[in-house]
Amino acid sequence: CVGIVGDYGAGKSTFINSIRGLRPKDPGAAEVGLYHTTLVATDYPHPARPDSLIFVNFPGVLLKKGSGGVRDFDIQDYLNEYGRKMDQCHVLLVFSSGRIQDNALQIGMKARDMGKRVLFVRSQFDID
Fold first, then answer.
1. CA 59/CA 82 separation, integer angstroms
2. I want to staple 83 with a disulfide (CB 3.0 to 4.6 A). Which of 9, 50, 56, 79 is the partner?
3. How far apart are CA 127 and CA 72, in angstroms?
């Protein structure tokens, strides 16, 4: 499978729909939105190869409120929740909607430590 992970709102679901030839309102399409829409890791098989090519849409990386007003991301919490599913993927595409930030790098490094191929995808670069 191909894991799709990264910032929320970075276009992960839009990418999955596009590569599967679907529009957002089509049956079986991944839900898209400007905010956090993917709440659980969800499999989306490719219509031409449903048994051998599956895209897994992981929930977006959310920043959590830390102590002292500092916003942080806990990679271990994310891996505890989704690491087993990430381990099933052969490749992980790590999406970022701007400059690649620390959270995306952490996920990419952990995925590489798991022996996965990792590609970074920068979306919405035309907005910068």
1. 9
2. 79
3. 25
